[in-house]
Design goal:
The complex is a heterodimer.
Chain A: H1 11-33, H2 36-71, H3 74-93, H4 95-99, H5 115-139, H6 145-148
Helix pairs in contact in A: 3-5
Chain B: H1 24-51, H2 67-93, H3 105-136, H4 146-177, H5 198-216, H6 247-250, E1 263-267, E2 270-274, H7 276-281, E3 285-292, E4 298-307, H8 308-314, E5 323-327, E6 336-339, H9 341-345, E7 350-355, E8 358-359, E9 369-371, E10 384-389
Parallel strand pairs in B: 1-10
Antiparallel strand pairs in B: 1-2, 3-4, 4-7, 5-6, 5-10, 7-8, 7-9
Helix pairs in contact in B: 1-2, 1-4, 1-5, 2-3, 2-5, 3-4
Classes of the chains: A mainly alpha, B alpha+beta.
Chain lengths: ~150, ~400
């Protein structure tokens, strides 16, 4: 992947960058105000997010892509990628409700849905949506030529 | 998606990733919407933070009554939509993680500075989305204070985002000046055709963000309740309003339903004490007001009770007085809350005794609770024991 020219540094960009540094510094100062124990706990969570993405989620996504390329017929890769983009993020997003980690015996109004069936329904709908989309595209192949051959 | 990783294990290089989808053409377009989501979440978050201050530095309006419901619903919705956007955006730039640092010192310094700013942005952005989402489900496996930390890291995130935009603006401009299928960076001529076009990837990403919102927003948008299979609440509860903190969790059971319950209204040395029957004997007002929680869920209720202003009149409190509201609950950060003067004087601010025509349930704050317009749910104090003019 090549580089894009750095571009002229306009006054607007300098001001925006300076405001950004000031905002981030204010946030850092707020964190320091919380005291050492909170600061350490926050730093652990901040670091875990990056490590969790770059060290776990991204490699797993790459692996899933490689496996799909190996195992699926060429024509299925596009729909499979779409399915992954639809279902992957919403599944991660659903972890707190699927695991019901915050559920409390004394509050029946919190986390009060059947989340696993709901999730399965959502995945099923995504699957149907992607399949129908692929079928429609297959029927009107010319219209999507541009997507297939970049 | 084919990446053609080497078979012999070694640290990959940027060039090893061989997808035409990765690059500024896609990244810029997702980035703009991600920026919009973060800006919305930041502004509504600051508003929420301000609303929760006992004495906000900027006086907040009491009307429209649904303002906080809207801003906090937007806050959580923007954060939810940002999850698919952030994940696809990070995917599209992942090879940059393996870019080799330049040799020349000045270049190296710039490269390092940009890496640090990206690292800070990524850490803060992921932190905000993860902790925010967990908060909506009341899942707190950490030791830091959620509210204070989510606020502090929000400033770090928005600041690092501003720096990122300042650095990337020329690239974004260039990307938008061309068709998404035009390459604006050089790529090797032998790259394989992608299984998915850039347009398809973008379209799928927008749909994914929409799916994430539809699957969760029913916690605050009533007509989505049936659709939102992953919403933290179905919206059911006594009187059609869910419960945030139960009487058992607040440890008020026994205190709240005691026969000798008395509400004390105090102003200087003037003090009056009222039983629940005394309160019921006073003129009753009904107000349609939402409970809108910081966790993003909200529900409209029909509340009946005594106007707070009329209770303050019993102790001759002048208009424009703020009120300290004390709950029966023995502890907790919101045991004592401050109702600013504008809210105490508002005609729809009630000490509610009933919800939807039924006496309040214990979990909704029996014998009496505060319900005021345009206030975060945590400040709608339940099991009220004392109103003190300050």
């Amino acid at each position: 992947m090549g580089r894009v020219g750095a571009g002229r540094v306009s006054a607007g960009r300098v001001v925006l960058g300076a405001l950004g540094v000031a905002g981030a510094a204010y946030g850092g100062w707020l964190l320091v105000q919380r005291g050492f124990a909170d600061l350490v706990a926050t730093a652990v969570w901040l670091g875990a997010g990056v490590v969790g993405h770059d060290g776990l989620l991204a490699p797993l996504t790459l692996l899933a892509g490689l496996l799909a390329a190996r195992l699926l017929p060429r024509g299925w890769l596009g729909p499979a990628a779409r399915f992954g983009v639809l279902v992957g993020p919403v599944t991660l997003l659903a972890v707190p409700v699927l695991g019901r980690f915050g559920a409390r015996a004394d509050n029946a109004t919190l986390l009060d849905r059947a989340y696993w069936p709901g999730w399965a329904l959502l995945v099923g709908l995504c699957l149907v949506g992607v399949a129908v989309g692929a079928w429609l595209e297959g029927r009107s192949g010319v219209a999507t030529r541009r997507d297939d051959v970049p | 998606m084919t990446t053609g990783l080497p078979t012999r294990p070694r640290i990959p290089r940027e060039e090893d990733f061989r997808s035409r989808l990765r690059g500024p053409e896609v990244t810029s377009r997702i980035g703009v919407w991600l920026g919009v989501c973060f800006a919305v979440a930041f502004l509504t978050g600051v508003y929420s933070h301000l609303s929760q201050q006992p004495d906000p530095v900027i006086p907040l309006p009491t009307h429209p009554v649904w303002l906080y419901r809207l801003t906090q619903g937007l806050h959580v919705t923007a954060g939810t939509a940002a999850v698919p956007l952030l994940l696809v955006k990070l995917w599209s730039v992942f090879p940059k993680l393996f870019a080799r640092p330049p040799k020349e010192l000045r270049e190296l310094a710039l490269h390092g500075a940009e890496r640090v700013s990206i690292g800070v942005l990524m850490a803060a952005a992921i932190f905000q989305l993860v902790t925010g989402l967990m908060n909506t489900a009341q899942w707190y496996p950490w030791t830091f204070s959620f509210r204070a930390t989510h606020d502090a890291v929000a400033w770090v995130a928005i600041g690092a985002l501003a720096v990122h935009i300042a650095v990337k603006l020329p690239v974004v401009r260039q990307a938008f000046a061309h068709d998404v299928d035009d390459d604006i960076v050089e790529r090797p001529a032998d790259l394989p055709a992608s299984a998915l076009g850039r347009r398809s990837l973008l379209r799928t990403t927008w749909v994914a963000a929409g799916v994430a919102v539809l699957a969760t927003a029913g916690a605050t948008v009533p007509w989505l309740r049936k659709v939102s299979v992953l919403a933290v609440r179905s919206g059911d509860g006594p009187g059609g309003v869910p419960i945030n903190k139960s009487a058992a969790a607040a440890r008020v059971t026994g205190l709240a339903d005691a026969a000798d319950y008395r509400l004390v209204v105090a102003h200087g040395d003037r003090e009056t004490s009222l039983s629940r029957a005394d309160l019921e004997a006073m003129p009753q007002t009904t107000a349609e007001l939402p409970i809108a929680c910081v966790e993003g869920w909200s529900a409209q209720g029909s509340w009946t009770g005594v106007r707070i202003r009329e209770l303050l009149d019993l102790v001759d409190a002048p208009h424009g007085s703020a009120v300290l509201v004390t709950s029966l609950q023995p502890s907790g950060p919101f045991r004592v809350t401050r109702l600013p003067a504008a809210f105490a004087d508002d005609a729809s601010s009630l000490l509610a005794l009933a919800l939807a025509g039924e006496p309040l349930s214990l979990d909704h704050g029996y014998p009496a609770r505060v319900i005021a317009p345009n206030r975060p749910g945590v400040l709608q104090t339940k099991w009220v024991a004392r109103l003190e003019v300050v």
